[in-house]
Amino acid sequence: MYTVLARKYRSQTFDEVVGQAPIVQTLKNAITTGKIAHSFLFTGTRGVGKTTMARLLAKSLNCLKSDAPTVSPCCRCESCIAVNLGEDIDVIEIDGATNNGVDQVRQLRENALYRPARSRFKIYIIDEVHMLSTGAFNALLKILEEPPSHVKFIFATTEPNKVIPTIQSRCQRFDFTNISAPLIAEHLKRVLDNENIKYQQDMVLPLARMATGSMRDGLSLLDRLISTGIEPLNATLLETFLGCPDSQKLCNLVAAIGDSAAAGTLDAADDLINTGVSEVQIIDALVDYMRDLMVIKSTGPDTALLALTAQQKQQLTQLADKFDIAGLVYSITALEKIRWLVKNSDQSRALLEACLLRFALSEHFLNVDELLRRLQTGDVPAVKKKHTHPEQNATDENQDNSHCRQTSGDRTCLHLSDLESIKTSWQDVLAVVQQHLGSGTRPLLSCAVPTAFEDGVLTLTFEPSARMQKKMCESNGRLQALESLLNKYTSVPVIIKLEIAQQQSACGHQQDSGAPGIDAENQIINHPAVKSVLLGFDATITAIEEQAENDC
Predict the structure, then answer these.
(1) What domains can you pick out in the chain, each with its CATH number?
(2) N or C: where does the chain have the smaller number of CB atoms within 10 Å of the terminal CB?
(3) Could you say which DSSP state residue 34 is in?
(4) Which residues pair with 199 in a beta bridge?
(5) In this structure, are residues 123 and 155 in contact, taking their beta carbons and an 8 Å threshold?
(6) Rounded CA gap, 467 and 521, in Å?
(7) For 409-418, which contacts have Cβ atoms below 8 Å and span 24 or more sequence positions?
(8) Burial class of residue 110 in the structure, from the number of CB atoms within 10 Å of its CB (0-12 exposed, 13-18 middle, 19+ buried)
(9) What are the tens digits of pLDDT across the range 73-100?
(10) 43 burial class (0-12, 13-18, 19+ CB within 10 angstroms)?
């Protein structure tokens, strides 16, 4: 009868355990010195060796070929063979998910009082111990605190946070770490060599990465590949039978994003989806891919943080030039946030494509220091403009020149002699402001309306919600520039006064709707970095949002 690889190649001795060297060394020292705890708690993700280590410890404590606990069990005596099969009368394996009640734990306590039938210790291995009820945990407390000398407890769990603290404090805890991809790859090669199965070298490492730190998952995936009956095993089988996205098509997608090619990004995503890969699998693959790019940009391609072949490193090194670290960090976090939405949405493809286009069409994300450096050196990226035909550009230019000639040559087109004329011509005034003071000032003034014009003082009133726009008009010399511009179209010198509209309170009195956080807004608006950005890019602040403490 065929035995799956995960069972056939389960470690039989401490020296065969892969990826848990500190735990192995600690247990071996404890056995050698005779300082063996009465209860252990093994924690870690699936497939990292918790149950295997529990059985190894049980064999070491009860091996019949040795006169005392040994770090090298024979694996041939009746006790060792029975432990391997999970059938030893003195090593009782219990599934915590199905035996989680108080009655089962009480029965365990009663049976624990009896001495082992043939071995040194009666050992209870409780898998998924976090599934026990609170009552069951409480029933264990007394026997864990003062156990009989012939009893040992080994608990295994993937969720140690669900094990109550009073239980954990009575156990010696060992945290199993995820196994690295290179270690999994080496073990898979040994298995393939022992099974006399032909394979290509470039297949093993990507397969090990798909295991995500779990040796059992890696062996299970290898079992699936072997079941195809195709030899030699190659990287194409990972894409065909295991749902791994095509590496070249994934590279094309990332390259299109790096080139800011919207059409190319959508085509590359469509090419991946048409191979049968789900949107969630694409997101997972992109996260891994961009993580590798981020590492290359940060440390270079020769770092030990990358589990890649030489060809993959060369390919990613070339792609890394298309990105910066800040953009990659943003992309990874954005993909992780959208993953749940894509997984649970009926419009998963649209969400994925929108996210990918967001990456492709966005400018590089710069931190404040880099942005200030570019502003100081004059290295400011040009603002992308909509492409138009040459004929349209010529027409627009003629219209603009005509407008300029009209406004500069015939100033009587704006009649700013009283409040009514200012109100009537306000949109024309805003057009002149945009022409002479830039596109960043007009949106600010659009939030205001002329409300008074007496003795040369023009009052512009903002709504309470536009308090920030008022502050922006008063900063960076905008107010003085506006006064100088309007003086060209009025018969008397103009002084501009800005104010916030009053609103009625609940008691019928007028009051200023002072929004909370005004001092904070002023500090933000007047911050040197913000001012530099606004001036350098001719930008306008449209809103200031308070970020929650738990936001990324």
Answers:
(1) 5-175 (3.40.50.300), 181-241 (1.10.8.60), 247-365 (1.20.272.10), 390-537 (3.30.300.180)
(2) N
(3) T
(4) 233
(5) no
(6) 10
(7) 411/488, 411/489, 414/489, 416/486, 416/489, 416/490, 416/494, 417/490, 417/491, 418/453
(8) exposed
(9) 998 999 999 998 888 999 999 998 888 8
(10) buried
452 membership: H or E segment, kind and range: strand 448-454
Distance between CA atoms of 208 and 195, rounded to whole angstroms?
Answer: 18
Lowest mean pLDDT among 93-107, 362-376, 379-393, 419-433: 379-393
> Which alpha helices (DSSP H) does 242-309 contain, by range?
247-258, 262-273, 279-299
For the ranges 283-297, 306-320, 394-408, the one whose mean pLDDT is highest: 283-297
User: At which residue do the structure tokens 């933000």 appear?
Assistant: 524
**DSSP labels, 387-432:** ---HHHHHHHHHHHHHHHHHHHH-GGGS--SSHHHHHHTHHHHHHH
**Cα gap 71→31, rounded to integer Å:** 7
Question: Which pair of structure tokens corresponds to residue 211?
Answer: 């295991």
Q: What is the dihedral of CA 312, 313, 314, 315, to 10 degrees?
A: 50
- In angstroms, the Cα distances linking 476 to 256, 319, 373, 431, 482 are 40, 41, 20, 20, 12
**What pairs with residue 480 in β-bridges?**
none
Helix/strand/coil for 68: coil
CA 349 to CA 355: how far, in whole Å? 10
Are 254 and 289 spatial neighbours (Cβ–Cβ below 8 Å)? yes
pLDDT of residue 513: 46
Q: Could you tell me which residues come within 8 angstroms of residue 1 by beta carbon, excluding any fewer than 6 positions away?
A: none
Q: In whole angstroms, give the CA distance from residue 352 to residue 278.
A: 10
pTM (2 d.p.): 0.63
DSSP conformation letters of 310-348: HHHHHHHHHHHTT--HHHHHHHHHHHHHHHHHHHT-TTH
459 touches 453 (CB < 8 A): yes
How many residues appear in the chain? Answer: 552
